Amino acid sequence: MKNSMLIPALIGGLILASGSAIPVLKLLNCFCCAWLVLxxxxxxxxxxxxxxxxxxxxxxxxxxxLTGMIGSVxxxxxxxxxxxxxxxxxxxxxxxALDRPEIPEEARxxxxxxxxxxxxxxxxxxxxxxxxxxxxxxxATAGGIIGVAIFEKRKNGDVIVPPPPMIxxxxxxxx
Amino acid sequence: MQKLHACLILFTGLWCSxxxxxxxxxxxxxxxxxxPICHQIPQRSLWLFGKPLAVCARCSGxxxxxxxxxxxxxxxxISTRKGVLCGALGIVLLDALNGxxxxxxxxxxxxxxxxxxxxxxVTPFLLQGQREAVDLIGKRWIQRL
Lengths: 175, 145
Prior knowledge:
The complex is a heterodimer. Chain A contains 5 helices and no strands. Chain A is mostly helical. Chain A is elongated. Chain A starts with 5 loop residues before the first helix and ends in a 24-residue tail after the last helix. In chain A, 35% of the residues are buried. Chain B has one domain. Chain B has a two-stranded antiparallel sheet with strand order 1-2. In chain B, a hairpin with a 2-residue loop joins strand 1 and strand 2. The longest helix of chain B is centred in the last third of the chain and has 37 residues, at 108-144.
């Protein structure tokens, strides 16, 4: 019997999300979405390791897609504290940039009204989630397939039989 | 299944066009679109018409190599080879490591070439995975009905 995909997908999603949300670590995503691919690959490794039958590349693709979906939700949740922490600094930078004389008055008022209304962070969060969902679905699915291709060593029909449960020896009456 | 393969070629073609487009016209929105997934350092990018592509040389190698391999697989089916995949992955990782260690010259051509090689090795696996996933989803739908 094959195991559930949920636990490997959750662990892979957590790797994907934490790597993509933590400020310094997320720079690794500049290496062709490494965290997204790694999340899918890690989920595939865990799934293959615990499975009793050969896992197909198709299952790897579905596992990767599930990891991408879970990862993008976790990323949205994890990035909120980092965004709140970073937003104050960004607002200061934007205000400094807006003080330049070449910026039109209307543009300055518009940006300041968005910053003041708090819409900046919500719109940013929504856009970030949508972008992450699209990219995570593509790259984590690829990661899931690559993970199964690399870690699955069984041939078709190979089944790992679990060892029989240990039965304690019968008690010998004291002679 | 051929239709799905054709759709994949079309989507990848659009993706690659979006990478090329900023070299032809001023399209900052496209550069911004690729910013979360690539560092876009001009010194590490391929240049066309005096402008850098929207992604770096290695990413360009992955995407253009994938497009070429997809098209080649559409014409003649290439079988999956795990040894080739592991070898190509090793070359990409070594080349990435060379960016830090600088054992040999860190040229855009090497980064593009190693990534293209990896794309050619991985594409048959991705196509087989996509076919099997569609079959699995189809079977589950039929079981539910």
